[in-house]
Amino acid sequence: MPGNVRPVEDERDGLTAFLAQQRNVLRIAAYGLTDEQAGLTPSASSLSVGGLIKHVTRAERNWMNMVERLPRDNDPEAHAAAFVFGPDDTLEGVLADYARAAERTDRVVGGIADLGYPVPIPKGVPWFPQDVDAWSLRWVLLHLIQETARHAGHADIVRESIDGATAFPLMAAAEDWPDMPWITPWRPGTPG
């Protein structure tokens, strides 16, 4: 997937294409990392690349549960644990789980014809509005784009703190771009 979203046909195509792009950018931050590196927390925060991918996976699943009117996981301990890339986690496993969550989102969204489809707002969550009964599916997709982009940015900072690799050289490596005068694909052992 190139560095920019392809031209889109309509609103639904645009929303799903931009979400797919942000997912890809998050995955690229993990490109070439070992399991040990995926769990490192080298910045001022306690975030790791692997933990960020786990968190976004959980968040996307919870949002699709709300869309499908299924129970969402509101366990505070599970929420906190989703940010941790633990000793039993593997980067391959976390990325595969993220791909499954994305496939589910794409399937659920693809099965709803109206982007205005109401998604009930859970009550009692302090950061959710209490005076609104539902978001639209459109709003949920925009929120997922926002959430994924925010955490992709976090992952970029964490990744750069691990080995100096930055987004575009990583993307060039992941997509097998040739060396160019203005960009060299990342290679293990070289900063981005």
Sequence-ordered SSE layout with sheet pairings:
Elements lengths: L10 H19 L5 H4 L10 H19 L8 H6 L9 H20 L7 E3 L13 E3 H27 L3 H8 L18
Antiparallel strand pairs: 1-2
Helix pairs in contact: 1-6, 3-5, 3-6
Describe this structure in words.
The protein has one domain (11-174): Up-down Bundle (Four Helix Bundle (Hemerythrin (Met), subunit A)), CATH 1.20.120.450. The protein has helices spanning 11-29, 35-38, 49-67, 76-81, 91-110, 137-163, 167-174; strands at 118-120, 134-136. By secondary structure, the protein is mainly alpha-helical. It has a two-stranded antiparallel ribbon. The longest helix is centred in the last third of the chain and has 27 residues, at 137-163. The chain starts with 10 loop residues before the first helix and ends in an 18-residue tail after the last helix. Helix 1 (11-29) runs parallel beside helix 6 (137-163) and helix 3 packs antiparallel against helix 6 (137-163). The radius of gyration is 18 Å and the shape is globular. It contains 7 helices and 2 strands; from the N terminus they run H-H-H-H-H-E-E-H-H.
